[in-house]
Amino acid sequence: MKRENREVMEGSHAVAHAVKNCSPDVIAAYPITPQTHIVEKLSQFVADGELKSEYLKVESEFSAMSACVGASATGTRTFTATSSQGLILMDEVLYNASGLRLPIVMVVANRAVGAPINIWNDHSDSMGVRDSGWIQLYAESNQEVLDMAIQSYKIAENDDVRLPAMVCMDGFILTHTYEPVSIPTKEEVSDFLPEFDPEHKLDPEDPKSFGTVGFPGDFMEFKYQQHEAMQNAKEVIPEVFKEYSEKMGREYNGLIEEYKTEDADVILISLGSVIGTLKDTVDDLRNEGEKVGLIKVRVFRPFPEKQLIDAIEGARAVGVLDKNISLGNKGALYSELLDSLYNSDITPLTINFIAGLGGRDIPESSAKKMYEKTKDVAERGYVEDEIKFVDLKEA
Amino acid sequence: MEEIRIHGRGGQGSVTAAELLAEAAFEDGLEAQAFPAFGVERRGAPVRAFARISDTKIRLRSQVYEPTYVIVQDATLLGTVDVEEGIKSDGKMIVNTSRDQSQLDIDTEAEIITLDATKLALDILGKPIMNTALLGAFSGATGEVSVEAMKKRVKKRFPGELGEKNAKVMEKANKIVGG
């Protein structure tokens, strides 16, 4: 990679630059920590005349997503960003966006959901809307999140997909961190991402109705088609990643990324920025002779069931780190992995680690403890304590 | 990889210092990362900021627990905040103080370097914003990041007279600590 193309900047600004080069026609947003710097930067680009876009300052997240739905239905490229309670306020409109098959791209700066009030990172917000029909990607670094923002438009606008996409970046841990990134130029983005020109759109010259009633005789077919579009996305996403890799020179290799899994007895699985810390941990443990590997789930919706099973095959035990919990059940990634395993040919032992809720730091020492616990499960041959809260304070 | 922790009070530019340090390290051809301690920031309250610099890509996302270097922007934090926590025994701590080292109550085997950064800032900038003086001193005391890169970046961030003056502060602080 050419070094001169890299610059040190805040994660929020990095993603704003990438979105700017995708030339969205309409941006509608409402500020919320830790997302605010993204749309603040975009509004500055518009005010300075660097981005020709309609920037709508709305009065709530509900309105932000509603404005995106209206704008997207007219065949324009749209963008918004939010966090936490803001995402929940959008909930009703999220389902409309996906049901209307509108390829809106939204960055979620992941933040815990209160009460208690908490502005820090976990994945309770985006995992809470995982059934809303949106594609979900989770980024490890600021480079990845800005690349995903560009890739997401191409995925979402694909004729075989045509679904909205959510790019998840860990609040503060990525949004507020300065690190070097390479931002594709407007020309490079234009070469990768064609103009959005959908076949069906609201147009006074050619009137059509969007969002009419789906009677019982038709509704199921709509849902089947959305599900089919998600299945198509499993094929489209790797193709988009491949083309992006070829054009931009950074490798994106699939719905999941395997790290030293080939001969691993124990595999850790997670998503988001903690993957970086886990990679360092795996390297340290490998140096000590431990046979450990890591799987990063880059795409959570559609869920990469087959890819995960193939990658896990051969491991004796799997430890899944979730930065969320469905209270009364399990972490989201863990639950869905178990779903996938049930009808597969493999039966690894599994354990779920709930960590990093509400911004609790996950140092390497905690990552090592999760490995030790998973290895212990492998050696004993059974799981004693399936759902384990990591670094919980002693009573 | 070297890890750096900066202690200061809200309004003293600790986060900006970490960012400038990362930018300057990048300018020198290193990989770099800077981030705040993600607190709710208030003017005057103790704040922390972190930086990492490395020859290779930085993947670690946790806070800094065992820094090689610690920068203390405000000596009134000594005794209130555990500034020496986790510092490597062969590390270095740069403290902004007008007092002599022997008068400082810091329990560490790490080398302590002192300078009156506030006075330097007041003399040249006319304001008690000491972060750039401490960055100049960091450069001189550790040799991890060049003062030229520091100056280039501060001038880029604060164009015009403010940047020039801050670069002068950096240069002077760098010389004071023997850079």
TrEMBL record, chain A:
Domain Pyruvate:ferredoxin oxidoreductase core: residue ranges: 264-362
Keywords: Oxidoreductase, Pyruvate
InterPro entries per the UniProt record, alphabetical: PFOR_II, Pyruvate:ferred/Flavod_OxRd, Pyruvate_synthase_PorA, Pyrv_Fd/Flavodoxin_OxRdtase_N, THDP-binding, Transketo_C/PFOR_II
Enzyme class: oxidoreductase
Domain Pyruvate flavodoxin/ferredoxin oxidoreductase pyrimidine binding: 17-241
Pfam families: PFOR_II, POR_N
A Gene Ontology molecular function term of the record: pyruvate synthase activity
Enzyme Commission number(s) from the entry: 1.2.7.1
UniProt signal peptide: none
Keyword Oxidoreductase carried by entry: yes
NCBIfam families according to UniProt: PorA_Arch (NF040682)
Subunit structure: Heterotetramer of one alpha, one beta, one delta and one gamma chain.
Protein name (database record): Pyruvate synthase subunit PorA
Organism whose genome encodes this protein: Methanohalarchaeum thermophilum
Automatic annotation (TrEMBL), chain B:
Example of a GO MF term: pyruvate synthase activity
Record domain Pyruvate/ketoisovalerate oxidoreductase catalytic: where: 10-173
EC number(s) from the headed UniProt entry: 1.2.7.1
Catalytic reaction list: 2 oxidized [2Fe-2S]-[ferredoxin] + pyruvate + CoA = 2 reduced [2Fe-2S]-[ferredoxin] + acetyl-CoA + CO2 + H(+)
Species assigned in the record: Methanohalarchaeum thermophilum
UniProt keyword annotation of Oxidoreductase present: yes
PANTHER family per record: PYRUVATE SYNTHASE SUBUNIT PORC
InterPro entries: Oxidoreductase_gamma_subunit, PorC_KorC, Pyrv/ketoisovalerate_OxRed_cat, Pyrv_flavodox_OxRed_cen
UniProt-recorded name of the protein: pyruvate synthase
Swiss-Prot/TrEMBL keywords: Oxidoreductase, Pyruvate
Parts of the chain that traverse the membrane: none
Highest classification ranks of the organism: Archaea, Methanobacteriati, Methanobacteriota, Methanonatronarchaeia, Methanonatronarchaeales
